Amino acid sequence: MEKIRVLIADDQPLIREGLRRVLETDPHIEICDEVGDGQGAINLTRSLRPDVILMDLEMPGTSGLEASQVIRKEMPDVKIIFLTVAEDEEMLEVVKAGASGYLLKDVQPDELLKSIHDVAEGKPAFPPVVTDKLEGEYSRLSSRNMDQRIKSLTAREKEVLALIALGESNRSIASKLFISEKTVKNHITSIFRKIKVHDRTQAAIYAIKNHIVEI
């Protein structure tokens, strides 16, 4: 099993040290570096290409949110877990920025480690309280538009979307539905276009909100 390479981005040295100590307890995680500002996170991500970034939302200069927007645009395969001190801090903006996870800084060590493994495998890592609030935000959108988006999906696309929400990889989806990975990718491209999302995390939340899958 290849190690998950993690970049820590937080402007507080004590927080970085605490995260480092937790991550060092997991033999399957490798800390590739740490940084204290958003622009630094962008620069290190460009040079190191970590698998996962633990990103503080508020940092001097370029914020974590701004940094993530750049990183996700340039390097969409890099997963980002946001760390914050408040449950309601820019949650919808975090999802729009392509975050794979959103955790409070007082998260338990085992939950943090599990979240890193989950996002590395393509699964979203949002605690229930955050998922509930995100669903509340999405419910404010036009229900008519939501219904039209659902109606535009084919039966096969709904199956694929449900499996995305369950955290399945493209290979796993292909195996379960007896189709090729290329066909899965084509379905995903069509799904994202129809329901107007940009990544798997947004698609998963959409699927949960619209009862395409129950988690």
Short structural summary:
With 215 residues, this protein is α/β, with parallel strands linked by helices.
Describe this structure in words.
This protein has 215 residues and is an alpha/beta fold. The mean pLDDT is 86. 37% of the residues are buried. It is built from eleven helices and five strands. A five-stranded parallel beta sheet has the order 2-1-3-4-5, sandwiched between helices. The chain is 54% helix and 13% strand. It has two domains: 4-125, 3-Layer(aba) Sandwich (Rossmann fold), CATH 3.40.50.2300; 141-209, Orthogonal Bundle (Arc Repressor Mutant, subunit A). Strand 3, helix 3 (64-74) and strand 4 (79-84) form a beta-alpha-beta unit. It is globular, with a radius of gyration of 17 Å. The protein has helices spanning 13-23, 38-48, 64-74, 91-96, 109-120, 128-139, 143-152, 155-165, 170-177, 181-195, 200-209, and strands at 4-9, 29-35, 52-56, 79-84, 101-104.
What topology emerges from the helices and strands here?
Elements: E1 4-9, H1 13-23, E2 29-35, H2 38-48, E3 52-56, H3 64-74, E4 79-84, H4 91-96, E5 101-104, H5 109-120, H6 128-139, H7 143-152, H8 155-165, H9 170-177, H10 181-195, H11 200-209
Parallel strand pairs: 1-2, 1-3, 3-4, 4-5
